[in-house]
TrEMBL record:
Oxidoreductase recorded as keyword: no
Signal sequence residues: none
Organism: Microvirga flocculans
Superkingdom of this protein's organism: Bacteria
UniProt name for this protein: Putative N-formylglutamate amidohydrolase
Keywords: Hydrolase
A Pfam entry, by short name: FGase
Record InterPro entries: N-FG_amidohydro (IPR007709), UCP029730 (IPR011227)
One example GO MF annotation: hydrolase activity
Amino acid sequence: MMQAAQMTAGVTSAATAEQPVAVVENPGGRSPILLICEHASKHLPARYGTLGLGPVELESHIAWDPGALGVAMELSRLLDAPLIHASVSRLVLDLNRDPSAPDSIWTLSERTTIPGNLDLDAAERAYRVREVYHPFHDAIDAFADARKAAGQLSAVVSIHSFTPVYRDVPRPWQIGLIFNRDERYARSVEAGLKKDPALVVGMNEPYSPADRVFHTLERHAEKRGLPPLMIEIRNDLIRTEEGQASWANRLAPLLREGARTL
């Protein structure tokens, strides 16, 4: 897949060392849609080692959302939309959680204990919030404010993936649309997806705002009066570039048309 123009945002913190937490793709994109991918990366900065996990766990869905960044990058290209994604694994800090929430730093994910996150003191938690959470979300704030002031922002969409089986329970959906009070964008995309009778579309499945997964969109869409939409795609469908491109091509016209009607 083609790579969009890229810039970095925020500062390179001691927590990340190697690169900024927030990476902006296609910053000059003409689309009024802002794409976000919080769980894009499985990267652990050197400071954290492996957090006591093995290679299998570090490649699994507990570390990132497999395939989500590939879909988001292709959507950015197809829509000519800016995309902001994270360069740090959610094992360090989950950027889609309120930083004061206990599960902003996971100690148990599904059935896997994260040894390096056990018994953290207040100073370490504050360090991760300062060095990971704030650079990422402050970069989105600055970018979104500038786009809105220029009349170039009408919706915010976050891209995620989910595991087909969670705690031994199969998940039947191929895609889920997560929404809160403003349902307009989600319902528009739902209508387009359901034209394919083979698709099983979850509405507020496999998660909903009640699961505290709407933090990014609350902060960056709802507080600006913009329609939010969180898209969850089952990760076995987007493990390959072909799968990622297929889903991006399916979603791009629906997102484009939905944004026109907002």
